[in-house]
Design goal:
The chain contains 22 helices and 2 strands. By secondary structure, it is mainly α. The chain has one domain. It has a two-stranded antiparallel sheet with strand order 1-2. Helix 6 runs antiparallel to helix 7, helix 9 runs parallel beside helix 13 and helix 18 packs antiparallel against helix 19.
Length: 495
């Protein structure tokens, strides 16, 4: 089974090369086929899982550990467990759906777009499976240039400015991540994440842990993104093509929150405890500010982008509590956000393709012309606002509960403010639906020819709808996987 860890990285890498070299249609088909194989391989990782024996903060089901740079004691160490596997599957699923979408909605030079999506998939999967800090950093950087090319090459009118802003912010975070990795490896004498997490920071002094956690947390906050380091996100989302926005929101942001939990907290728990209240305050600020800005937005994709700032704020707040319930909330919130916001960006792209505008004032009355599209938009919106029975509910509920259980006046206040931010999410999503789907048909919508959704659209969106329902009704689909590794992490960092 450890060979599958190489397969899920090698197959999309080979697919990217084939997609770029073959003629356009054949390249897109080859890339989509590679994405499909990677998805099947990610599902197969759940078979025969056997967590490592003993008390370990990271208990891989399968792992591959070979020498990479022996002179520097750097290893090509990959593994997957109950924390990383759901994100691995989410990544391969969304990449498959995006590549398949290009077969129907073919962009110019589509084979190159598919090749770039597969290259991004390699980087993201590498982040979620790397168990060596240096290897983690390498994969973290792999994503940068392909995502820049996706935004700059297939984005909107201001795509180059948005892509440049994305790169500058990401490079800033990368520098801090590199310094943080250097500090940890130099002081601890190892880059192995399993060893570092098992020590619970015991090999590092309190001051070193605080420094390392600060560097790592700020680096991951840029990618999450956490207020006030979030301003690259709305521009990138607004200008990116539909499939770029789906990957960006669905899984790329999760690199930040995953790194915050697995690396920053796992390696420097004492530093995390010292700085947790700062992280909690910033996360709550992201929830409130993201919601207030959404209430003022007039462009569809920009509104959805700012909603991600608030939703990822809930994820970071859950991690900041440093409790098992908070970690569980963050992990289920990650999956819910990937499913529902990925769906929202697919739908926003479909609306813009049909109307040539994303301005809310120009989209009124959509349900009169395309009731199916309006209905799916309503489903995704109410799922994102946290309606019970859909995936978005559980992460927000558990985060508020974890903050209350943490105790202390500050955390009670943060819980109340976060709950209020959740109520504001309901306000701005309902405002979106009122402006877009209700009322008389606006000029951009009235000129559309009424038609049903295309079969490729239904094939692309249906898995996200079904999974959002499944996780909402049966949250144990995620929670059962993450319970044991979260409990092990809490035991180790609490020593």
């Amino acid at each position: 089974m450890s060979a599958l860890l190489v397969v899920i990285l090698a197959v999309p890498a080979v697919g990217a090369v084939l997609a770029a070299l073959l003629p356009d249609r054949a390249g897109r088909l080859a890339g989509t086929g590679a994405a499909g194989l990677a998805f099947l391989a990610s599902l197969a990782l759940a078979a025969g899982r056997a967590p490592a024996a003993g008390r370990h903060a990271i208990q891989p089901w399968h792992q591959l550990d070979v020498a990479w740079a022996p002179a520097l004691d750097i290893r090509f160490h990959l593994g997957v467990d109950g924390i990383s596997w759901p994100l691995v599957v989410l990544t391969t699923l969304l990449t498959l759906l995006c590549c398949g979408y290009t077969l129907w909605q073919a962009p110019a030079s589509g084979r190159y777009l598919v090749a770039l999506l597969l290259a991004i998939e390699v980087g993201i999967l590498g982040v979620f499976t790397a168990l060596d800090l240096v290897l983690f950093f390498v994969f973290f950087e792999v994503v940068l240039l392909p995502m820049y090319a996706v935004i700059a090459g297939w984005g909107g009118p201001r795509r180059r400015a948005a892509a440049t802003k994305f790169v500058l912010y990401t490079l800033f975070g990368s520098v801090l991540l590199l310094v943080g990795v250097f500090v940890v490896v130099a002081k601890a004498g190892t880059a192995d994440l399993v060893t570092l997490s098992d020590r619970g920071g015991a090999g590092l002094s309190g001051g070193t842990q605080l420094l390392a956690f600060t560097l790592l947390a700020v680096a991951f906050a840029v990618k999450s993104p956490l207020w006030p380091l979030h301003t690259w996100l709305p521009d990138a989302h607004t200008e990116a093509p539909t499939v770029g926005s789906v990957i960006l929101a669905g899984v790329l942001l999760k690199m930040g929150t995953y790194g915050l939990l697995r690396v920053a907290v796992g390696v420097a728990p004492d530093g995390a405890r010292a700085a947790s209240w700062v992280l909690g305050v910033l996360a709550t600020a992201a929830i409130l500010i993201g919601a207030l800005v959404c209430l003022r937005q007039t462009e569809l994709k920009r509104l959805i982008a700012y909603s991600s700032v608030g939703h990822m704020g809930f994820v970071v707040l859950g991690i900041a509590t440093l409790t098992g319930t908070g970690f569980q909330a963050a992990l289920v919130g990650n999956i819910a956000h990937g499913l529902l916001t990925g769906l929202l960006f697919f739908l926003a792209g479909a609306v813009k393709d049909r109307t040539a505008t994303g301005e809310l004032a120009s989209l009124g009355g959509l349900r009169e012309v395309s009731p199916a599209l309006a209905g799916l938009l309503g489903f995704a919106a109410i799922g994102s606002l946290g309606l019970p029975g859909l995936a978005g509910f559980w992460g927000e509920l558990f985060t508020v509960y974890a903050s209350v259980r943490h105790g202390g006046p500050l955390w009670i206040v943060l819980a109340v403010l976060a709950a209020f931010g959740g109520a504001l999410a309901a306000a701005y999503f309902l405002r979106l639906l009122r402006r877009v789907t209700h009322g008389p048909a606006a000029p951009a919508v009235a000129g559309l020819h009424p038609r049903a959704l295309a079969r490729p659209e239904l094939a692309t969106w249906s898995p996200l709808v079904l999974l959002a329902l499944a996780v909402g009704v049966v949250p144990s689909l995620v929670l059962a996987l993450t319970a044991a590794p979260v409990r092990a992490l809490i035991e180790v960092i609490g020593r």
